[in-house]
Each structure stands twice: as C-alpha cells, then as structure tokens.
Amino acid sequence: MSKQIVTITLLIAILSPLYIISKDAINYFPELVGWKKSATIQTYNPNTLFAYINGAAELYINYNFEELKVAEYRSINSKATIIAEVYRHNQPINAFGIYSQEKPDEAKFSSVGTQGYGLEGIFNFFKGSYYVKISAFDIKENESQILKDFASKISGQLGKKEPFPGLLQCFPKEGKVNYSEKYISKNVLGYSFFHSGYLANYNDAGNKFTALIIEATDAEDGRRMMTEYMKKNDSVRKIIKEGIFTVKDSYHGNIMLQWEENYIWGILYSKNQEVSTKYINLIKEYLVEQKKVQGKTKL
Fold first, then answer.
1. What 3-state DSSP class applies to 23?
2. CA–CA separation, 199 and 265 (whole Å)
3. pLDDT digits (tens, 9 = 90+) for 203-237
4. Is this structure's pTM higher than 0.85?
5. Which residues neighbour 214 within 8 Å (Cβ) at sequence distance 6 or greater?
6. What percent of the chain has pLDDT over 70?
7. Which terminus of the chain is less hemmed in, N or C, by CB atoms within 10 Å?
8. End-to-end CA distance of the chain
C-alpha cells in the first residue's frame, strides 16, 4: 500500500468522527404531513441576529448564542403557518439560561426536550445546547396539538435526552417551586463581580424565599467575589474567611450566604433564620454530592 493511500486512510479515520458530530450535519426540521416546509432555511449568527430579533439579540448573545436556523411551514389545508426557530448556544447551561429568562411562571410544562412548555400559539423547549421556539399563526383549534407533536419531532433530531445542566440539580427538592429555576449569565443580584449563578424559588410553610448558587472558577475567585461583595455591604469586616455570612444587602435586604472553596450559596428574602440555615445546610449536602460525582472529596 502506498504512503499516499495510508495517509488518506488515516485522514478519513481522523475526520470521520468530526463529520458525524458536526452541528451543521443535523437536520433540525423534519417533514410534517399536511404541511409544506419552506425551501430556504434562514441562518443567523451573532453578527446578524439583530436583523431577526432586533433588541432581544443582546440577551441571547449574553448567553453565548452561536447560530439560529429558521424554517417556515404552511398548511396545505388552511391559512395556518408555523415558524420554527432553533437557537444553538455554546453549551447546555446557556441554552437553559435563555430558556429560563423567557419562560413564564405558569404554563403547561412538558418533558419535551429536557423541559418545555406550551401557551396559546407557541411551544418552546430546551435540550442540550439548543433552545427551540415554535410559533403558530392562524391555526385552528383542532390543529393546536401539532405544535407539541412538532416539538417532539425536532427534539428527536437533537440527540438523546439530557438532564438539567450545571448545578441546577443541587437545589433541594423540598419546598422548591416547580419550574422556578433560572440561570443568570452575568451580574447576578446586580453585581458585576458575581459573574454567573443559579436561582430557584421556595415556599417552606408559607415562608417564601429564593435560593442562590454561584460557582467560582476556583477558591481564589470565590474569595475575590466575597471580598468585593462584603466591601459593598459590610465595610467593617476586613478579613474574609470561608464560612457563613449574614448580610444586610443594599438591594435585597437580609441575606445568608456561605462560601467554601469555589462555591458561594445563599438564601434571599427569607423571614425565618432557622429556615435559611436549614436550606444553607441542605444545599451544601447537594454540593458535596456533586463534588463526589466529579471525583473530588473536599467541601
């Protein structure tokens, strides 16, 4: 066998996996019986997204948006139109993040994708690094089920079902308000030094509060964030050590925070310190389990 053939064979072996998992190779938009799909699929990137969603583009870009593909479907039996939008972000937590920013507090939530919901004329969901939005116009009542069915078809194009990303699974289930989780990509609680974080709402026997988890890049980054935070809200304390902090936040009132290693977590808006302490400890238990999953023993 010649060297040239060997070289070509090796290149094919190396490049074939890249071709298989190529994002461009995914056919997002399946055929729908009774609907005609547009011949042209619109494509937008971070430089052109403003042309499609104007002022909303900045929010998507804050969640590391990479590409949008849009297809239009027209019913062959009525005037109904469906617009399907598939937003691809750089990683699952950012797809969830933009989804969490736009989802309503109340809707018909669904297990399509990782999680989705339907409202009149729309069905949105996220799965992996994708945020999918489906909108219908002039649709008849007997055609409304098509949105969820269509969402399921698109979800099937996006690979296997994935769990909630990041630290979302570190929120205790006890007392958590269903579907209240959010991921904030920057300026958590309005502070630029809290670069990103997770929030979830709770109701413990009528005591309503919000739980917060921030993951720093390392312990030193955690120290830097806590030092900046305490400068803003507690000028008396000069030396910041790992542990629990009870702070009167300038914007959010009394907050209980705990910092250990590269994690900062806390309870906002609680009127009961015992409840705050209880959930501070519960969150720590989940974070410890997360460390074990990662093969780490500290925290």
1. helix
2. 10
3. 999 999 999 999 999 999 999 999 999 999 876 66
4. yes
5. 188, 194, 196, 197, 198, 225, 263, 264, 265
6. 87
7. N
8. 57
- Contact status, residue 209 vs residue 202, Cβ threshold 8 Å: yes
Residue 114 has pLDDT above 90, yes or no: yes
List the one residue out of 249, 255, 245, 262 whose CA is nearest residue 197.
262
Q: List the chain domain ranges.
A: 17-157, 168-293
Q: From CA 143, how far away is CA 25, in angstroms rounded?
A: 30
Helices (H) and strands (E) in the chain, counts: 7, 14
Domain spanning 168-293: which CATH class is it, in words?
Answer: alpha beta
**39-55: per-residue pLDDT in tens?**
999 999 999 999 999 99
Residue with tokens 């209240």: 180
**Which segments within 224-277 are labelled E, that is strand?**
243-249, 253-260, 263-268
